[in-house]
């Protein structure tokens, strides 16, 4: 999908709720489909962000099609529905577009008939199973006695036709070795869920994101993966094919410029940043002032302190 320059509003990091009422109303009427990121927009880990459920539910009542779009590959869609409902979001399974689900649908769309070696969470193997694809690899797999013994004992499964790499708390040298070995066959497909460098956490720790695992595997394999998550456009192509979508009448809401907003820019969506998550006001301001196009692509059309601020303008 190419970047389109046909947006209805030519705004750049504009505080939406500081605009005249008619501009806000025009903006609200300018989209039919909403893609919203989850963590940092709707909730922070297990805590709902005040007002987000009311805004999402009102958007649905107004007839907007809302998709919950997440790079998290550690949950199946049913788990997301449960989590969203617990926080009072009106949400059905078909509203959830997660990367474990997308990876499974991607292989299915290719007519994939073989088995997958998964570097990732159980959710990945469960989503594959739901589309009828078998997999191996989930769970701990570390050196037992010595790596030399691991090499001697390893028997490659001849049925493996794809390697999917997602978030994996059990990621190990052994898994990297097995993934790269399978990928030495050029017919084996290489799919990654997302490239996030770090994952949000409630502590002041650095939690490595899926991107770090993918870089390790691709460095060993000397191959590039097909990434299904944000900011890659596959997610938008998927929604377009499954449900239909006019990019110009689509709004992307996110808290992270280098995934959420970049996806929106690449696909020609309108973009809204909320400051309740990763990207700060200062970072977004610096990007707006930058002369580099790659920085400008990360600048949202509009922003809000938090999604709930919209509620007062939705009647
Ligand atoms: Mg987020």
UniProtKB/TrEMBL annotation:
Cofactor(s) required, per the database record: Mg(2+)
Record text on cofactor binding: Divalent metal ions. Mg(2+) is the most effective.
Molecular-function GO term, any one: metal ion binding
Keywords: Hydrolase, Magnesium, Metal-binding
Residue positions binding substrate: 230
UniProt xrefs under InterPro entries: HAD-like_sf (IPR036412), HAD-SF_hydro_IIA (IPR006357), HAD_sf (IPR023214), PGP_euk (IPR006349)
GO cellular component, one term: cytoplasm
Residues bound to Mg(2+): 37, 39, 255
Catalytic residues as annotated in Swiss-Prot or TrEMBL: 37 (nucleophile), 39 (proton donor)
Record's keyword annotation contains Heme: no
Domain of life: Eukaryota
Family, per entry: Belongs to the HAD-like hydrolase superfamily.
Full protein name: Glycerol-3-phosphate phosphatase-like isoform X2
Source organism of this protein record: Agrilus planipennis
Highest classification ranks of the organism: Eukaryota, Metazoa, Ecdysozoa, Arthropoda, Hexapoda
The encoding gene: LOC108745119
């Amino acid at each position: 999908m190419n970047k389109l320059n046909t947006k209805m509003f030519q705004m750049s990091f504009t505080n939406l709720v500081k605009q005249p009422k008619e501009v806000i109303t025009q903006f609200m009427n300018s989209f039919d489909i909403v893609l919203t990121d989850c963590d940092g927009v709707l909730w922070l880990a297990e805590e709902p962000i005040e007002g987000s459920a009311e805004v999402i539910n009102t958007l649905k009542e107004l007839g907007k099609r809302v998709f919950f779009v997440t790079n998290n590959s550690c949950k199946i869609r049913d788990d997301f529905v449960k989590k969203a409902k617990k926080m009072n979001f009106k949400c059905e399974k078909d509203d959830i577009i997660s990367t474990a689900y997308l990876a499974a649908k991607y292989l299915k769309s290719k007519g994939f008939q073989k088995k997958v070696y998964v570097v990732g969470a159980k959710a990945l193997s469960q989503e594959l199973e739901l589309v009828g694809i078998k997999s191996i690899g989930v769970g701990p797999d570390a050196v037992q006695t010595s790596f030399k013994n691991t090499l001697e004992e390893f028997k490659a499964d001849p049925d493996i036709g794809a390697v999917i790499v997602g978030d994996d708390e059990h990621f190990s040298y052994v898994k990297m070795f097995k993934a790269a070995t399978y990928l030495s066959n050029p017919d084996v497909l290489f799919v990654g869920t997302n490239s996030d460098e770090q994952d949000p956490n409630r502590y002041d720790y650095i939690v490595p994101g899926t991107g770090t695992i993918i870089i390790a595997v691709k460095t060993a394999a000397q191959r590039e993966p097909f990434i299904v998550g944000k900011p890659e456009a596959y997610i938008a192509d998927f929604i377009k094919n499954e449900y239909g979508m006019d990019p110009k009448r689509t709004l992307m809401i996110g808290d992270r410029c280098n995934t959420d907003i970049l996806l929106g820019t690449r696909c020609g969506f309108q973009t809204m940043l909320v400051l309740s998550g990763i990207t700060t006001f200062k970072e977004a301001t610096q990007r707006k002032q930058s002369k580099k196009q790659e920085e400008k692509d990360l600048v949202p059309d509009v922003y809000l302190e938090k999604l709930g601020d919209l509620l007062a303008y939705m009647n």
